[in-house]
Design goal:
- There is one protein chain.
- Helix content is about 50%, strand content about 15%.
- It is an alpha+beta fold.
- The chain has two domains: about 1-110, Beta Polymerase, domain 2, CATH 3.30.460; about 120-225, no CATH class.
- A five-stranded mixed sheet has the order 3-4-2-1-5, with helices on both faces.
- The protein starts with a helix and ends in a 26-residue tail after the last helix.
């Protein structure tokens, strides 16, 4: 790590660095890289990310000024995730010239306990319809025995999970680690994820992954629709404000 970070540490605009990710918390696989977050002064006008192999390990690094990290946290909140906060709150502080990185770690720990906002009624209605529409398309593909059915099936699985976790105000792990997220309590503990709040959904979701059955995913969508307050496509409607009228300009004489 020192071999990679030493040149960065000598730069005046570099405030500090955190080593983070699965290799720090102990959930790594043989293919896992090492994540390094380099914190820059707000005097700089650039950001950088890249990869470098050092001592047999692939390092993925991110260099950002403080204001950029603030923007990332705000964007994470909008997406109902805590990626930036998780990296800093769980990361190992490698060096910190001014105390700025320690402050980022404190902010990260606070952010990890901050609840997500609740979905609006309009957002919930739109989510219900979107899931019905995607399932309806999947039914068509199944009847046609389309080669795209498998692709559409997994796309719908992802849509159902994302819509439902937003409704519940919770996070789930990255796609490649979803199985471990649902099935391994120790993985969740190390990655600072709480247990998914609806275990009936978790069982239905895993059944869909295992079986790839049309009936399984139909039951999953039905479950989410029920938790969202129910859905019937016949008669469904949603009225929302249109953009304001533009006042007509008077005639030019």
């Amino acid at each position: 790590m020192d071999e990679f970070l030493a040149p960065w540490k000598r730069k005046r605009e570099v405030l500090g660095a955190v080593v983070a990710g699965s290799r720090v918390v102990g959930t790594h696989t043989p293919n896992s890289d090492i994540d390094i977050h380099i914190v820059l002064s707000d005097r700089v006008s650039w950001r950088e990310r890249g990869n470098r192999r050092v001592a047999g390990f692939l390092i993925e690094y991110f260099a950002n000024p403080l204001r950029q990290l603030t923007a990332y946290r705000e964007n994470d909140r909008k997406r109902f995730v805590r990626s930036e906060a998780r990296m800093f709150s769980q990361g190992e502080l490698w060096f910190d010239k001014t105390g700025a990185v320690a402050r980022l770690q404190r902010i990260g720990r606070s952010e990890m306990t901050r609840p997500f906002r609740r979905l609006t009624a309009v957002e919930i209605e739109l989510a219900k319809y979107a899931l019905w529409d995607e399932l309806d398309n999947l039914v068509d593909l199944a009847r046609a025995e389309s080669p795209l059915h498998g692709h559409a099936y997994h796309h719908l699985l992802d849509s159902v999970l994302d819509a439902y976790r937003r409704l519940l105000g919770c996070e789930v792990s990255h796609l490649s680690k979803l199985w471990r997220f649902f099935c391994e309590p120790e993985f969740r503990r190390r990655q600072a994820y709480p247990e998914f709040p609806d275990q009936a959904f978790a069982r239905l979701f895993l059944a869909c992954v295992r079986t790839m059955r049309q009936s399984a995913i139909e039951r999953l969508v039905e479950h989410v629709h029920e938790r969202m307050g129910g859905f019937h496509v016949d008669g469904w409607k949603l009225r929302t404000p249109a953009i304001p009228k533009v006042a007509r300009r008077g005639k030019v004489h």
